[in-house]
From TrEMBL:
InterPro entries: AKR, AKR_Detox_Biosynth, NAD(P)_OxRdtase_dom_sf, NADP_OxRdtase_dom. Pfam families: Aldo_ket_red. The keyword S-adenosyl-L-methionine does not apply. Gene3D superfamilies: NADP-dependent oxidoreductase domain. This is Aryl-alcohol dehydrogenase-like predicted oxidoreductase. Residues 15-344 form the NADP-dependent oxidoreductase domain. Signal peptide: none annotated.
Length: 353
């Protein structure tokens, strides 16, 4: 694989990034370490995590993923220097008091969270430090509309940027990014950074897949013109685009055992558990099979080959899944397949937004 530059930073990453939110919940430490080692051996130089992981979030597993990665670094001297490491500071609590007290995300919260991530990761610096979700109230995680009446923001964007600037100046963070953001948020972070000489965001990590292409409804132009890179998460639609739920559905006696969406009610209540999302996935999966591809191949190839995507974040629970996802690199989609994909989207839109 080639490498791509993230935004206006000097971070050069592979167009596939290893996501790790399953580490510490679905995947034990030994298996997590095996996945990390094989990913590095296959040439992936980019990993993504977050302070709130593993998922689904619980007090018992808060920080577990970063701890597992840090232990792997300790066991593998030299591995840290070969990797670009991204992690995230959690936004306002969203019902997770174990993350922090209060409903906001203050400058002090950002600094304290960074210090915690550095300790757990057993590293001196975080290459890309991202705000996991906005401190502002925004339509995200399955919410369709912005509602000004729900606004509870307590920390201005400039104050957040100044806290991040302090971490950059101290050498604890190299570059910053956003996640689950809106066009307004990206523009405001860039505007204030340029106006006040503060760090400029390099990336936005948002969902992007066949059943959620909302990125193309404005954020694509925003980030293209501002030179901010997309890190696409959930390219397989939380497993819906692998085809494993096509016959069984996501719940019931015949549903795959141990799969995240089938196992956790909190996940099903969000965008991925909607009946419309499963219906659309079945259509895309059938299209893949009709064109000689597995559903996973087509869904990943869609992200791997889109101009909008700098790096695609793949989340796996085994080395075998890792190999399947990496082996999809190089798959191309014909103009006819891309036209058929757009026809399905025109009919069913973005059911997992």
């Amino acid at each position: 694989m080639n490498t791509v530059r993230l935004g206006q930073s000097d971070l050069l990453v592979t167009p596939i990034c290893l996501g790790t939110m399953t580490f510490g919940e679905q995947v034990n430490e030994a298996d997590s370490h095996a996945i990390l080692s094989q990913s590095l051996a296959r040439g992936v130089n980019f990993i993504d995590t977050a302070e709130m992981y593993a998922v689904p979030a619980r007090a018992e597993t808060f920080g577990a993923t970063e701890t597992i990665i840090g232990n792997w670094f300790a066991k593998n001297p030299g591995a840290r220097q070969k990797l670009v490491v991204a992690t995230k500071v959690a936004g306002p609590s969203r019902g997770m008091p174990w993350v922090r007290e209060g409903k906001g995300m203050t400058a002090a919260d950002i600094v304290a969270s960074c210090e915690g991530s550095l300790r757990r990761l057993q590293t001196d610096v975080i290459d890309l430090y991202q705000i996991h979700w906005p401190e502002r109230h925004v339509p995200a995680f399955g919410n369709l509309y912005y509602d000004p009446a729900k606004e509870t923001s307590q920390t201005p964007i400039r104050e957040q940027l100044e806290a991040l600037a302090g971490l950059v100046k101290a050498g604890k963070v190299r570059y910053i990014g956003l996640s689950n953001e809106t066009p307004y948020g990206v523009h405001e972070f860039v505007r204030l950074a340029e106006q006040h000489g503060l760090p400029r965001v390099a990336t936005v990590q948002n969902p992007y897949c066949l059943i959620n292409r909302t990125w193309e409804n404005g954020l694509d132009e925003t980030c293209h013109r501002l030179d901010v890179s997309l890190l696409a998460y959930s390219p397989l639609g939380f497993g819906l685009l692998t085809g494993k739920y096509d016959e069984s559905g996501i719940t019931g006696p015949n549903a795959p055992q141990g799969a995240r969406i089938a196992s956790y009610e909190s996940v099903r209540k969000q965008r991925w558990g909607r009946p419309e999302a499963l219906e659309a996935s079945r259509r895309y999966n059938a299209l893949a099979r009709a064109n000689g591809m597995t559903p996973t191949q087509m869904a990943l190839a869609f992200c791997y080959t889109k101009w909008q995507v700098a790096s695609t974040i793949i989340g796996v629970t085994s080395v075998a899944q890792l190999e399947e996802d990496l082996n999809a690199w190089g798959t191309t989609l014909s103009p006819e397949v891309l036209k058929a994909i757009d026809a399905i989207r025109w009919e069913l839109r973005d059911p997992a937004l």
